Automatic annotation (TrEMBL):
Annotated positions binding phosphoenolpyruvate: K22, N23
Residues covered by the Enolpyruvate transferase domain: 7-407
Biological pathway: Cell wall biogenesis; peptidoglycan biosynthesis
Gene source species: Romboutsia weinsteinii
BP GO annotations: cell division; cell wall organization; peptidoglycan biosynthetic process; regulation of cell shape; UDP-N-acetylgalactosamine biosynthetic process
InterPro entries in the cross-refs: Enolpyruvate_Tfrase_dom (IPR001986), Enolpyruvate_Tfrase_sf (IPR036968), MurA_subfamily (IPR050068), RNA3'P_cycl/enolpyr_Trfase_a/b (IPR013792), UDP_GlcNAc_COvinyl_MurA (IPR005750)
GO MF, one annotated term: UDP-N-acetylglucosamine 1-carboxyvinyltransferase activity
Name of the protein in its database record: UDP-N-acetylglucosamine 1-carboxyvinyltransferase
Active site positions, chain numbering: C116
Length: 417
C-alpha cells in the first residue's frame, strides 16, 4: 500500500488553484442519470471517489468520457437497475445514486452502505424520505430494493439536516408529480451546486442553501452543462499547510462565502486572510493561537470535514483548545496518530477532546485512519523537522487531487512510495 514520506521544516508558500469539490461532483454525477441524455461537467477533480462513481455509472450502462477536467456522461444508454455491492463497499457515498436511479427507473437495488471508519452512518432519513415520495422499499439481507409505481411530491421534514438525505430527496423529487417541500434541509454549498446542475437540466428546484427547498416535479429533463464549485475543504486544508509551516499562500477561484466558517477559525488562530479578486491570501501567524472551542456543526457551522486538519494546527498553538465533534461519533481516530508525533491530546468524552499546544511535533511513522485524518497527519508532518512516514494514503486520495505535487509546488519535501 502506498505511503508518503514527508521531510518537514519547509515553509509552504506560493499560489494555488483547486478544482471542484468532491462533495459536489459525486451527487452531480449521480444526477446525470436523470436526464436520459448527455451531461457535460467541468472542473472535475481527479480523485479516486470520482473514479469509483464513473465505474458505478458505467456498470449501469452510462457512457462516460473523462478528459482533462471535463466529464461527459451519456445516460441514454442505461441498461441495468442494480448497483454492484463492491462499489458501495468501496465508497459509502455511492448511496447518493439511489434517488437518481429511482427517479429514472421503476425499480432499483443497491446494497446497504453500512458504516465506515468515522461512524455508523445510518441511512434511515434517506429511506424515509423516499418512502414519503411513494417508493416502496424492501430491505433484506443487506440489500435495499426500491419499487416505484409513481413518485408523488410530499412534505419532508428532516429531524437532522443530513447532506446525503437532502440530496437523495432532491434527486428523487425532480421528476415526481407535484411539489416536494423539504424542511430542515442541509444548507451546505454543495447542495446549491446540485440545485444549479438540476436546474440546468430543466428541473425546477429552489431554496438550496437555505433550510427550505422546494421542488416542482417536471416530466422531462434535457442535456446540461455545468462547472463544479471549488472544493472548500481542500482549500482549507492547504491554507492550514501554509499556516502550520509559517508560510504565505494565495488561492484563486475561491467562493468567499463558502470559506467563511473555516476562515473564521483560521483568523482566530492568528492567520491574516485577505480576499483578492475571486481569491484569497493567507499569511501565517508568528505564533499559532489556541482557539478555545472548535465545535463541528452543519453548515454554516464549522465543518466536520475540517476538524482533523484544524486539530493538527492547534497541536502547535500557544494554549488549550477543546474539540467537540457533533456530527460523527468516531471522528477522532487521528488523535492517537497525532499523539505519536508529540501532540498533547486528551479525551474528555468520546467526542470531546482537549488539545494542549506543544512547542514542536516529532517525526514518526503514522497511519491514515480516514480521509481527513490522513490529511491532518500530512499537515502535522510538514511542521516537523525530521522524516515522517504516512501510510494508507488511499484514504487521502479519495478526496485530494494530486496532493503530492500540489504540496511539492508549494515547497514541501514529500515523496510517494
Ligand atoms: C459525499 C458527501 O457529501 N459527504 C459529506 C456528507 O456526508 P453524509 O451525507 O453522509 O452526511 P450526513 O449529513 O448525512 O450525516 C450527518 C449525520 O447524520 C447522521 N444521519 C445521516 C443520514 C441518515 O439517514 N441518518 C443519520 O442518522 C449521520 O450518521 C451523521 O451522524 O456530509 C457530511 C457532513 O457534513 C460530510 O462529512 C461528508 O463529507
Ligand atoms: C467524510 C467525508 O466523505 P464521505 O462522506 O464521502 O465519506 C469527507 O469528505 O470528509
Amino acid at each position: 500500500m502506498s505511503k508518503y514520506i514527508i521531510t518537514g521544516g519547509n515553509k509552504l508558500e506560493g499560489k494555488l488553484s483547486i478544482r471542484g469539490a468532491k462533495n459536489a461532483i459525486l451527487p452531480i454525477m449521480a444526477a446525470s442519470i436523470l436526464n436520459d441524455d448527455v451531461s457535460i461537467i467541468h472542473n472535475v477533480p481527479r480523485i479516486s471517489d470520482v473514479d469509483v462513481m464513473i465505474k458505478i455509472l458505467e456498470s449501469v450502462g452510462c457512457k462516460v468520457n473523462y478528459e482533462s477536467d471535463t466529464l461527459i456522461i451519456d445516460s441514454s444508454t442505461i441498461d441495468s437497475n442494480e448497483i454492484e455491492e463492491h462499489y458501495v463497499r468501496k465508497m459509502r457515498s455511492s448511496i447518493i445514486i439511489l434517488g437518481a436511479m429511482i427517479g429514472r427507473l421503476d425499480y432499483t437495488k443497491i446494497s446497504h452502505p453500512g458504516g465506515c471508519a468515522i461512524g455508523s452512518r445510518p441511512i434511515d432519513l434517506h429511506l424515509k424520505a423516499l418512502k414519503d415520495l411513494g417508493i416502496d422499499i424492501q430491505e433484506e439481507n443487506g440489500f435495499i430494493r426500491c419499487f416505484k409505481k409513481e413518485l408523488i411530491g410530499n412534505s419532508i421534514n428532516f429531524e437532522f439536516p443530513s447532506v446525503g438525505a437532502t440530496e437523495n430527496t432532491m434527486l428523487a423529487a425532480v421528476k415526481a408529480k407535484g411539489i416536494t417541500k423539504i424542511y430542515n434541509a442541509a444548507r451546505e454549498p454543495e447542495i446549491e451546486d446540485l440545485q444549479d446542475f438540476l436546474n440546468a437540466m430543466g428541473a425546477k428546484v429552489k431554496g438550496a442553501g437555505t433550510n427550505y427547498i422546494e421542488i416542482e416535479g417536471v416530466d422531462k429533463l434535457h442535456k446540461a452543462e455545468h462547472t463544479v464549485i471549488p472544493d472548500r475543504i481542500a482549500i482549507g486544508s492547504y491554507m492550514i499547510a501554509s499556516a502550520i509551516t509559517g508560510g504565505r499562500l494565495e488561492v484563486d477561484r475561491v467562493i468567499v462565502s463558502h470559506m467563511e466558517p473555516i476562515n473564521d477559525k483560521l483568523k482566530m488562530a492568528g492567520c491574516e486572510i485577505e480576499y483578492i479578486n475571486n481569491g484569497l491570501k493567507l499569511i501565517a501567524p508568528k505564533q499559532i493561537k489556541a482557539i478555545d472551542l472548535v465545535r463541528t456543526s452543519p453548515h454554516p457551522g464549522f465543518p466536520t470535514d475540517m476538524q482533523a486538519q484544524l486539530m493538527a494546527l492547534m497541536s502547535l498553538s500557544n494554549g488549550t483548545s477543546i474539540f467537540y465533534e457533533t456530527i460523527f461519533e468516531n471522528r477522532f481516530m487521528h488523535c492517537a496518530e497525532l499523539t505519536r508525533m508529540g501532540a498533547n491530546i486528551k479525551y474528555i468524552t468520546e467526542n470531546i477532546c482537549m488539545v494542549k499546544g506543544v512547542k514542536k511535533l516529532n517525526n514518526a511513522t503514522v497511519t491514515s485512519p480516514d480521509l481527513r485524518g490522513g490529511a491532518s497527519l500530512i499537515l502535522a508532518a510538514l511542521a516537523t523537522q525530521g522524516e515522517t512516514e504516512v501510510s494508507d494514503i488511499y484514504h487521502v486520495e479519495r478526496g485530494y487531487e494530486d496532493i503530492e505535487n500540489i504540496l511539492k509546488n508549494l515547497g514541501a519535501n514529500i515523496v510517494k512510495m
